[in-house]
Design a protein that fits this description.
This protein is α+β, with helices and mostly antiparallel strands. It contains 7 helices and 17 strands. It has a single domain, classed as Endonuclease/exonuclease/phosphatase (Deoxyribonuclease I, Chain A, 4-Layer Sandwich). It has a 7-stranded mixed sheet.
Length: about 350
């Protein structure tokens, strides 16, 4: 009698896998703002973020940063769950990702980490955390985003990973941190357009092989959704018409006066998660519903001026390396895939 109640092991595995694939996948992106470790790397310009450096970046401040980054990422998912894919920028190296995993709630799960090794002048890179219970790493590459024809500068490489989900879906994931506007928006725009073109070239290659490829492009683009680099070069908007166009839910959020970054008394969206139509219109496997795109705007990540009521991101550092013990000068973004 008892035997009749027992399921064959193969059937049990099938049921468990089915249950897991029914669980939504959360994808988060966060510009951490200067997430350095405290060790001197002779090959990097990290002197500012050392215990004896201008920022006085010691173990206490570093561990505070780890806990704050972890708190932000934890807040993108309800309950005890954590985001399954996490893009991070302004990280120094893979060591900080490993410390983030081992010294936070991520330690209770099984996460892998990837990071670029860029020629960036500030010694910062792009990283990716992936939940190994959901994703298997298939391939990892770096795309060079520095165009030597556009002046004497070096920027972050683009992280490009191919991951296979537990249900068999293949995801192509880009983590970006395009050149800043430090020299002026128009003066620096060609650098971001060049970075966008490198991503677009790879997407064209992927879509030529599979028009329904499931592609995720996330990052701090240092451009808004209506700027040329994203709207025209990357071909990402909120109403894709051509087959290769990408869908950008953050275009809609930006028009609604929401934002991830505060500059010159204005909130605008710099941080975005963009998907291919292969995810937007998926009839099987994981799919994306535009209403499931969010900006993590909670009180704990904001600084509020008591006199004026003005709100802005709660930063780790201010001008002249004044330490605020905050989170970042950017807000995190996240989406859910069903």
């Amino acid at each position: 009698m008892l035997k009749s109640l027992l399921l064959p092991s193969c059937m049990l595995c099938t049921l468990l896998n089915f249950a897991q694939t029914k669980t939504p996948v959360t994808i988060a992106f966060y510009n951490c703002e200067n997430f350095f470790d405290t060790k001197d790397d002779p090959n990097k310009k990290d002197d500012e973020f050392l215990p004896e450096g201008a920022a006085k970046w010691d173990d206490t401040r570093y561990n505070n940063k780890i806990q704050k980054v972890a708190q932000v990422l934890d807040s993108t998912v309800a309950g005890p769950a954590l985001p399954n894919l996490v893009g991070l920028v302004e990280i120094e190296n893979n060591n900080v990702l490993q410390d983030l995993i081992s010294k936070s709630q991520f330690a209770s799960k099984n996460y892998g980490s990837l990071s670029t090794d860029s020629p960036d002048e500030r010694s910062i890179d792009c990283g990716l955390l992936y939940d190994k219970s959901v994703f298997t790493l298939v391939d990892f590459k770096e795309l060079n985003a520095t165009n030597p024809a556009l002046g004497d500068y070096k920027t972050r490489n683009i992280l490009f990973a191919t991951l296979k989900a537990i249900n068999g879906d293949v995801f192509y994931v880009f983590v970006d941190h395009w050149p800043s506007r430090r020299e002026g928006e128009k003066e620096s725009e060609p650098r971001r357009i060049y970075a966008a073109q490198q991503v677009r070239n790879k997407i064209d290659e992927l879509q030529k092989k599979d028009a329904k490829a499931k592609i995720i492009v996330m990052g701090d683009f240092n451009d808004h959704p209506d700027n040329t680099s994203i709207l025209t070069t990357l071909k990402a908007n909120d109403a894709p018409k051509d087959k290769g166009d990408l869908y950008n839910a953050y275009y809609t959020l930006d028009k609604a006066k929401q934002g991830t970054h505060y500059y010159d008394k204005e909130w605008r969206v710099l941080d975005q998660i963009i998907v291919s139509q292969g995810l937007l219109n998926a009839k099987k496997g994981y799919s994306f519903d535009p209403k499931n795109a969010h900006i993590l705007r909670k009180d704990f990540v904001l600084y509020k001026n008591a006199k004026t009521g003005e709100e802005k991101p709660s930063r780790t550092y201010g001008p002249e390396n004044k330490y605020y013990n905050g989170y970042s000068d950017h807000l995190a973004v996240y989406v859910e895939l069903n």
